[in-house]
Specification:
479 residues; four-stranded parallel sheet; globular; Rossmann fold; two-stranded antiparallel sheet
Length: 479
């Protein structure tokens, strides 16, 4: 390609871009990164405890009586710095796609502060045999609520003022879908239509493509930071080569699938090709992760079966008292690599719930008993699946196993549906915490998008996030 397609002075360009977009890029990366939110919560939690200690009227008296390193201000702050991010994650505050609602924000942070301060007091008492002063706890609670609400609002305001500018090229249908996703989640991105850049030419019916001789310069003038290529197999290679040249000018260039996967933590199933699955790592570090995950599954499942035995006994009595039938029931489900296995649950429906054959479970299913509704909301009906995990048929985290009757039908309607069986099914999963309850083919497609994301990005950190957010879902009674 001719040299005129590049910026005349790349060093000057990169300096200009760094000056104009450094804050936007930092906020965008911070917005997407769970570790960024975790770090902010830890530092904020430490500062809140130190301020609470300093503001306590009993501080001078405590300092004059004795010094206990187990109960120093710094030690207490470190404990709170571990507790507060975990509680924030349980309440969903580390989810970059969290809905931006100020009332919901305030209510949730009241819950976070209440639970975090309570755990701080319990941890200090059980591990260090000391009690935290009531003034310190009260100050910590007030600072946790007000301080974190203020921090979150400031970051939202800054990210809105420095939105990441994204140029979308190619399919108008995919561009509209991206606009809907961004508007729905409220992430600080702004999609710039191609017609705003005065370098458009026509290629085919209604498909505008840029003239790359002037495209990079015009994108610089519009403040574009990333280019998303929504191109198809019919797109001329010259156009793709011209777009690839934009990377030499400092632009980040992504295809539609990668952009959605990275930004919204799901895989657009209908837009991927079979080659996408070649990117999944099934050896090396993944083998190490798989072994460590299996060991953790065995330990947690064995501990869970022992600890929940009294709960299962009480649940068995209540199930029997409400309706006749067995306490436990089993169903054939599709496991890893399509192997069938029997899943175990506490019975939450009437014993004749499927007298007319297999049916989708509905959100307000009339077949569910009153105590069964409680079991399903708290997910206690899933506790017997610890046995499936111990046997190696399931894991704690993975795609939820589906019935063979439904799998055969869904595989015919949804592309790559069978590929969700590449990993062991789980008691909870990435799809369950990111997508609401559903019982249609469209719901199955949406959940598959999250399942495939988990299959590709499975890691201890992602498992840890999933388990914490599952706790939050159980606390609010979400299924």
């Amino acid at each position: 390609m001719h040299a005129s397609t590049s910026i005349a002075n790349p060093i000057e360009f990169l300096g200009y871009k760094a000056k104009k977009a450094s804050r936007a890029s930092w906020l965008s990366h911070y917005h997407r990164g769970v570790l960024g939110w975790w770090f902010l919560d830890s530092i904020s939690a430490m500062l809140m405890v130190l301020c609470a200690w300093w503001l306590s009227p009993a501080r001078p008296l405590q300092a004059s009586i004795h010094f206990d390193p187990r109960f120093s201000a710094v030690g207490l702050a470190l404990v709170y710095a571990l507790i507060f991010p975990i509680v924030s994650h349980i309440f969903g505050f580390h989810n970059p796609l969290i809905r931006r609602d100020k009332l919901v924000l305030a209510v949730k942070y009241l819950g976070v502060a209440t639970l975090a301060v309570t755990l701080l007091s319990l941890v200090e008492l059980m591990l260090f045999y000391t009690r935290v002063g009531r003034y310190v706890l009260l100050n910590t609670f007030i600072l946790s609520c007000g301080g974190m609400i203020a921090v979150r609002l400031v970051l939202w305001r800054l990210s809105d003022e420095t939105k990441r500018m994204v140029m979308v090229l190619g399919s108008s249908a995919l561009s509209e879908h991206l606009v809907n996703l961004i508007n729905k989640t409220g992430i600080p991105y702004e999609l710039v239509p191609l017609d705003r850049v005065n370098c458009v030419r026509k290629h085919g019916p209604g498909q505008p493509l840029p003239c790359f001789e002037s495209f990079n310069g015009h994108c610089l003038g519009c403040g574009i930071q990333e280019i998303v290529a929504c191109y198809t197999e019919e797109t001329p290679r010259n156009d793709l080569a011209g777009l690839a040249h934009s990377t030499l000018s400092g632009f980040q260039v992504s295809d539609y699938t990668s952009f959605v996967e990275r930004t919204f933590f799901k895989v657009p199933v209908e837009q991927i090709a079979p080659e996408w699955f070649f990117q999944i790592n099934t050896s090396g570090d993944y083998a190490l992760f798989r072994g460590a995950k299996r060991m953790a599954d065995i330990i947690l499942a064995a501990s869970g079966m022992v600890l929940t035995a009294p709960v299962l006994l009480l649940a068995a009595v209540l199930i029997k008292l409400e309706s006749p039938g067995r306490v436990f029931y089993s169903q054939v489900r599709v496991g890893q690599f399509g192997r069938p296995f029997k899943i175990w649950k506490l019975r939450s429906m009437r014993s004749d719930a499927e007298k007319h054959g297999a049916q989708w479970a509905q959100q307000h299913d009339a077949r569910v008993t009153r105590f069964g509704l409680f079991l399903r909301k708290t997910r206690l009906d899933e506790v017997p699946q610890f046995f499936n995990v111990f046997r190696g048929e399931m894991s704690f985290v993975g795609p939820r196993p589906e019935r063979p009757e439904f799998v055969s039908g869904l595989a015919k309607e949804i592309p790559f549906y069978q590929q969700r069986h590449l990993l062991k099914p789980g008691i909870t999963g990435w799809a369950q915490i990111n997508y609401p309850y559903g019982a249609t083919t469209a719901d199955a497609l949406n959940k598959l998008e999250y399942d495939l994301y988990y299959i590709k990005h499975a890691s201890p950190l992602l498992d840890f996030q999933t388990i914490l957010r599952t706790i939050g879902a159980v606390m609010k009674g979400a299924r």
